[in-house]
């Protein structure tokens, strides 16, 4: 067989492969040329004058630039050497084909020359004209670039990103994100749906492959796909966060912080139909449908073994309405001096040394106890399987369906002053939903002396000395508070309001406290701030007396009054020698009846078997609230993880108990 036929077969194979993506394997040009020279059978590449007969400069340049070309099709990888020719070139083609197939693909085939080799040339040798045939090809326009180095580098980077995405992103996560987009649960998600679905299809095919070479071939065959760089895209950040174990709420919040306007409020919960279906299947598999309905617990539910104290005095009686009409207080107040002089004792010592054998316990209410109101819950069906982490089916909820939140404690933690004749405190971003800049303001209008506004711009009043001592402009994913306190007051009005300084709008809610005369008024504002300013209340002070006009409806806590405690116990996660999570101390009273249904469980209470379905259970808990019970157990709760001091009167003796 003549070399001319061999060169033509290589030429035709190259043109055929050009219909697909042309690639090159990782091999040096010199190694490639050496492999070609060594592929000839013995005696077929003898020395012609000074060098081997198949060693010419034209063919050398062709082999070095074209010899490593491959393409990947649905039938696998092929090379320019995969041809059917006669000997001696059949051996050359077979040897080179096997050699090239053994190498890894390195990059796309891009060259800055438009052709390599020539069909033939002639020389005059000893008076005779001799024609030599050579390898030759024309480079397709798709594979030609004057910036070949830069183009190759970009393509290699794309392929690397593509493979990382295929190896690192979870298919379950992709399907979750597709469901969220279809449900309209993430901001402008539909813009990314096509690329996410395309990547999902590619990942499905990729995961069917078993060996590394076929996986690499797949990457290079599809690296030009629109979804190849999805890992480095904004939707890819959501996919990688979720795959890395970031919780759904946090991952979506991070995504929306990159693409959504600051005042965007997500219209739907992050729960998909598939997530709900999977959760329901799990509920049925575990047989716990009857465990989901909850009710407020009553005294008879609690085993005597878990009761640290039960009131042994006369039973509680309903308050006579005539007492209200006559202005009689049946709950005696404790003086500030008595509170200050009460001996201190730790909660654990109090439970061990003071409480046992006592007959009467009374709790002193205070400004900091508004959100310590706690309610116990039990399963509606007492025989239902337990769904909680501990060995009983009881749980609890603090007022406002929060685990434990206290504006006064948060103000104190930030260095704010709680002591004064009048205090106005603001709190927001409890659920990490409002990383905005809210400001506490007070407009003072004095009977003598004119008007003044306390805010971040003028933190100390020139009229009264009232002072803004905490000013937070960026919550940074933490609960934020601001605080204004007055040590002295002048006759006049004090209008408290909250301003959305950033103008980004409120996504969730904020809370405020106004405290004077040992009484705490707690306000909550929910929903978008339609107006930039939200009025809370106006206090009028005249001749030592206060009056208040509310713009928002408040919850009211009377301070320094005694309320009878009918039962003391630990939180259910520490009953019966359980020791699961934070310990809470519950002082159950006849006041603090829940005004509205409350949550019967929280995700952090649930058995670990249900963790993967926490979003759906969070929704169920919000939908299946506990109805209130006139005889239900409620009172005040204190977490062992938060420093608190409370005052308890036991058999007539006052104690300052440190939690």
Describe the structure.
By secondary structure, the chain is α+β, with helices and mostly antiparallel strands. The chain has four domains: 3-146, no CATH class; 155-270, no CATH class; 294-402 and 561-658, no CATH class; 407-556, Lipoxygenase-1. It is 27% helix and 26% strand. It has 16 helices and 32 strands. Strands 11, 12, 13, 14, 15, 16, 28, 29, 30, 31 and 32 form an eleven-stranded mixed beta sheet that branches. The longest helix is centred in the first third of the chain and has 21 residues, at 148-168. The chain is elongated and about 135 Å long. It starts with a helix and ends with a strand.
How do you describe this structure in short?
The chain has 659 residues and is of the alpha+beta class. It contains 16 helices and 32 strands.
Alpha-carbon distance between the termini?
97 Å
Q: What are the low-pLDDT stretches, counting only 5+ consecutive residues below 50? A: 314-319
Tally of domains: 4
What is the number of beta strands? Answer: 32
Sheet/helix structural class: alpha+beta
C-alpha Rg (nearest Å) = 39 Å
Outline the fold blueprint:
Layout: H1 3-17, E1 22-25, H2 29-38, E2 47-48, E3 51-52, H3 57-66, E4 69-73, E5 76-79, H4 89-101, E6 105-108, E7 115-117, E8 120-125, E9 128-133, E10 136-138, H5 148-168, H6 171-182, H7 190-206, H8 212-222, H9 234-243, H10 248-259, H11 273-286, E11 294-296, E12 307-310, H12 321-325, H13 336-341, E13 344-346, H14 347-354, E14 361-364, E15 373-379, E16 395-398, H15 407-413, E17 422-428, E18 438-446, E19 450-454, E20 467-470, E21 480-486, E22 492-500, E23 509-516, E24 519-526, E25 533-542, E26 545-550, E27 555-558, E28 562-570, E29 584-589, H16 614-623, E30 634-639, E31 645-650, E32 653-658
Parallel strand pairs: 13-32
Antiparallel strand pairs: 1-4, 1-6, 2-3, 4-5, 7-10, 8-9, 11-15, 12-28, 14-28, 14-31, 15-16, 15-30, 17-21, 17-23, 18-19, 18-22, 20-21, 22-25, 23-24, 24-27, 25-26, 28-29, 29-30, 31-32
Helix pairs in contact: 2-3, 6-7, 9-10
